[in-house]
TrEMBL record:
The gene is nadE. This is Glutamine-dependent NAD(+) synthetase. Deamido-NAD(+) binds at residues 380, 409, 545. L-glutamine binds at residues 133, 190, 196. It comes from Bifidobacterium apri. The keyword Nucleotide-binding applies. The lineage of its organism: Bacteria, Bacillati, Actinomycetota, Actinomycetes, Bifidobacteriales.
Amino acid sequence: MPYPHYAGGMAQIRIALAQIDTCVGDLEGNAEKTLEYAHRAARQHAQVVVFPEMTLTGYPIEDLALRRTFRKAAWDKANWLATELEADGLGDVYVVVGTVGTDHASDKPRNRLVVLHNGVVWAGYDKHFLPNYGVFDEFRIFSPGDHSTIVEVDGVRLGFAICEDIWQDGGPVAELAGRGIDVLVTMNGSPYEEGKTHTRFDLAVRRAKEVSAPVVYVNQVGGQDDLVFDGGSFTVDADGTLLQRSPMFVEDLGLFDFDTDAEHQTAGVIAAAPDKDEEVYTACVLGLKDYMRKNHFSGVCLGLSGGIDSALVAAMAADACGGSNVWGISMPSMYSSDGSKDDAADLAANIGAHYDIQPIEPLFVAYQNQLHLEGVAAENLQARIRGVIVMAYSNSKGVLALATGNKSELACGYSTIYGDAVGGYAPIKDLLKTRVWELARWRNEACAHGMGVGGLHIVGNESGQHGKPAPDDTIIPVNSITKAPSAELRPGQKDSDSLPEYALLDQVLAEYIEHAHGRADLLADGFDEKTVDTVMRLVDRAEWKRRQYPLGPKVTALAFGRDRRLPVTSAFRE
């Protein structure tokens, strides 16, 4: 029989949604930030402040969870934080944080939520459903929880769940539905992918109706390795009405006021949602920015060819760390056109980057005098000479080398190992070529509307600074967007000499990779047999290259390296 709702008269509480950027393993930094946001929440008169999944440890911690010394340090930090909150006069606030615990029966780690109150760890809850698909590997690492948790705050009954627990039917949410909770509070580490915000919202609406109570959804923000967390925390009412939403890609403290006597809760601040191009572009930049920050890089270097891929990567880098921290290297060969050289120089000037010219022809001639290479081997030699130069800049200046390949090239193996594939991070590796063009056009439009270099609304720019204006309100030279793409490794070369036109290629790749369509499916989709066989052959034969490519931000449902893992050697071609 359902529990009765609070019957002692009207009860009101304010819940703060602390959407923060954590770093895996940085117990000290994560705890300090948690303390900072708890103070901010208290100043806003919140009785409860909720943080993202595994707040103190960062997320995902992967095999770090298996280290006993780390688990002990994390638990000690939770106790320290509870004591510090009490000492700072915040003992009466209920601070809900995530950490790693231990299942003492099996000695395995647990993905744990704890409530800190009155100087102690007041209550705890362990994640029940441990995802083992896509980017997740929790079932191998953690032990599942087996009970639900309710905490009463000033007469309001709060039920708790962690991320995957609301994605699966049954489990703790179904149990809480029969226990008369007033609010379902969820902490999440839900990685970004294009279109996922709508899926999360629809899910929360279903759960709100299941428990007949509002759902508070707090999500992590920031980049962690090749994952990007977009924030976008929100609250929905029991009937599914959106009550509050935090902005995406920035740290934020949202507020939700709950009244037990109100039939419908009062709406608060609802942040506007970005358009789809801004959303994907911002995800790529935030992934790069946090990868740099968390690995202690202050600048980047990359080859600037004058083409669209290196132009977009350079623009993203300037938005991530400022144009003055970008080293663009033009490495013309005997086949480089004057137009490409001019486009590269214009791009560097637009973003305020360092721009160096390092001709490769003398080095190429020196190699050829010894190796006497022909055909593809001679073409790839040019790319590998450029890779050596990029890494020389990376080493000498202590900056992160960026690879500029896109998903279409990566899919078809249209890159050179140890050449243009060289680097520590690949910001556009999950963007098909046609998407690269779309985002380049969007960035120029955004610049024309006042978003200068470094003016993106991401972690670190919560105040919304507009950035540094670009000359003529253009970041990426128009010619880089409109000209036919070419690697310029031989006279008159175009990408279409070796690949189907990108407009067609990307359609086939989307079906073959992201929707797992086989040959018969692709033919049924209406693609011609020659194109299908060409694309499948290229993709299947390039797996060995993809395994050696740098990591980059996942922004689609199926990203190479994280989601799509096929055998390097396979005879299956259907």
